[in-house]
Amino acid sequence: MLFCILGPQVLRVTTIKEEPYAMSKGSELEGFCIDLLSAVSKKLDFKYDIKLVKDGRYGTTDDSGNWNGMIGEVVRGEADIAVAPLTLTAKRETAVDMTKHFMQTGLSFILRKDLASDDSQFLSLLNLFSTEMWMGVLVAYLLTSVCIFLVSRISPCEWEQPEKETNFFTLSHSFWYTVGAMTLQGAGPHPKALSGRVITSIWWLFSLVLLACYFANLSLWLHSDNQQQSVKSFEDLANQNLIEYGTIKDSSSFNFFKNSNNPTYHRIYEHIKKAQSYSLNAEEGFRKAQKGSYAFIGESVSLDLAVARYCNLTRAPEIIGMRGYSIAAPLGSPLVKNLSVAILHLSESGELDYFHSKWWASSCVAKNDKSAPLKPTSLKGIFLLLALGLGLGLFLALLELAAKSSKIANTQQKSCCSVMSAELSQRFRGGKAMTPESSEKSKA
């Protein structure tokens, strides 16, 4: 069972104002760290008094080796614990004790979306239409081909005497004709009946609209792709000189590059130091990234928050230097063990995940300067027009057959329905596909 060994003593807590960890709400504070502190206090049954750090710093050493910020307040005994996004580092561990991390993070960078890169995939041309759109086009193609075949069989204008004549529009030719119409090439012979011409005309219109939308999306995709630069990793960042980059001076992120033996990371440190491309704080880094050619390097969780708030920013997929955020307490403090166990309980119960989803909720509507895949709902009107055209074509073909059947019925003194039934049976059972030899004879 978890317990706090301090009894009724009120714990003095120091934190720093940073969104979304601790933010002002009237005279009180709210945020991820405030929720975390409240949950931990309930598990360990202690009360606390929380205040903002006086100098607004996390904690580094000055030239004389003294600690400032929240770490300094804990070291000097001005606070019992520091609850904030404090990165667990070897240097801080020498000055204070730190708990198990309550959040895992790493280093990444953000920049404006129009400066980021999304390398072209092998199937990028197919991605201009959504999967649903391609399925809709396929279904439309199959239905149109089948309808052209049915109309050519039913309509007397295409096939006057099934017992003697042959029909050009076999099922295979109907499929080929529909493809030819979509590619604006044509694949004769063309329908002669009004019903067949209605269907083919509607299909041509459908094809023209579809191709116009596809090429419009293609043009936008090519235009946006040519404007982008290939910056997806820290190596890409170090190998270019068009985009400036930097981080917060003397932060753990800055010290990571400063102390790294990796040649690429050390080049980044040398560039930042030479160009003096520092940011005073995260908010300034976010503002610089929004303005233009600047990549701000920082903790990935903080950058994810910026991306959720500022919709024109994007975070690079690469994350390096994995580390965690922990609660700091004085060296040898008996609190650390209990705090660590409480944090593990919150993690295992899913409460930490809930706090994260609560405070990192995105306010951005899905939007991209790059062409989005076209969906069927965008062209539902033309799909509906095609469906009406197919239905109208089949209806006209049946009317044409009914008119002929009525004449035959009057001549032979039979019922119109029996004649029409016999005609349909003959048209779908009789007749052969025209061979090349018969085709030549018919032309002659």
Automatic annotation (TrEMBL):
Write one Gene Ontology MF term. Answer: signaling receptor activity
UniProt-listed InterPro entries: Glu/Gly-bd, Iono_Glu_rcpt_met, Ionotropic_Glu_rcpt, Iontro_rcpt_C
Coiled coil regions in record: none
Q: What parts of the sequence cross the membrane?
A: 133-151, 202-222, 381-403
Question: Which Pfam families has this protein been placed in?
Answer: Lig_chan (PF00060), Lig_chan-Glu_bd (PF10613)
Q: Where is the Ionotropic glutamate receptor L-glutamate and glycine-binding domain?
A: 20-76
Localization per Swiss-Prot or TrEMBL: Postsynaptic cell membrane
Identify the residue position(s) of the site Interaction with the cone snail toxin Con-ikot-ikot. 258
Q: Does the keyword Cell membrane belong to this entry?
A: yes
Please give the CDD domains that the UniProt record associates with this protein: PBP2_iGluR_non_NMDA_like
Q: Which UniProt keywords apply?
A: Cell membrane, Disulfide bond, Glycoprotein, Ion channel, Ion transport, Ligand-gated ion channel, Membrane, Postsynaptic cell membrane, Receptor, Signal, Synapse, Transmembrane, Transmembrane helix, Transport
Note whether Ribosomal protein occurs among the keywords: no
Query: Which residue positions hold the site described Crucial to convey clamshell closure to channel opening?
Result: 231
What S-S linkages are listed for this chain?
311-364
Which family does the UniProt entry place this protein in? Belongs to the glutamate-gated ion channel (TC 1.A.10.1) family.
Give a short account of what the protein does. Receptor for glutamate that functions as a ligand-gated ion channel in the central nervous system and plays an important role in excitatory synaptic transmission. L-glutamate acts as an excitatory neurotransmitter at many synapses in the central nervous system.
Name this polypeptide is given:
Glutamate receptor
Q: State the species of origin.
A: Sinocyclocheilus anshuiensis
The taxonomic lineage of its organism, from the top, reads:
Eukaryota, Metazoa, Chordata, Craniata, Vertebrata
